[in-house]
Amino acid sequence: MNRTTRAWLRDAAVLCAAASLLCAPLSGALAQPLPRIKAKVLSFDGKVLRLDPLPAAGKAPPAPQGMPAAGKPFDVSVRGETRYVVAAPATLSDIHPGGYAGASVTDAKGRLTADEVFIYPPGLAGTGEGRFTEGGRTMVNGTVTKAGTTGFTLSYRGAAESGGVCVGRASPPAIASPLSCTGTAAIDVPGGTPVLALGIGAADAIAPGAVVTVSMARDPKGGYVTPGLVIQKAGNVENPPPSP
Known about the structure:
The chain is built from one helix and 14 strands. The protein is mainly beta. Strands 1, 2, 3, 4, 5, 6, 7, 8, 9, 10, 11, 12, 13 and 14 form a 14-stranded mixed sheet that branches. The chain has one helix at 3-18, and strands at residues 36-44, 48-53, 74-89, 100-108, 111-120, 130-134, 137-147, 151-158, 160-162, 165-169, 181-188, 195-200, 211-218, 224-232.
């Protein structure tokens, strides 16, 4: 896998992990699945973002139909209910039993290997809980029961068992189906696997030059509006390989 393809997969995984944080729907027709676009911030006055779309990397798909293309700056408005997620570099040592974490994984005959690891703050425990496929990636989110230098284990709730494995997204306990299940996932984390800490941010975290990934819809007047965006903090700290 080349570097540009890996970078695209990493961006897709971040979006999958952050999706539950960005789903506060706007009203009316905007409460539906939305395309997302990655861009550099040119300016932001607190109400309108001026963005320059970034070119697709490697095997990344082109901009969704009707969305701005690379090199064509555009404006997108924020609302009072717009959510902001910050993705900051972290390390595997930041994961501890009792915390809440997740990963996009490759499943090789039941052996799960992380492609990307995500750490949630305490206030976001329960976000996207379960084991499911989203955006072409397999995601697992749950409570950390074991943590070490080469991986960690999650305990999670899912929708139903399939082939002896608990899969699907967890429903709130009050409306959980009789088919709901609990499962565990032991996840290997090879050296060099990116680890990101996700958290709720605020509009003041946005500055010119920042890279953001924006969920977008059209407002009644035909302009772009966003219910949520991911702010990528500078740096690319990766989990170093273990000592021989």
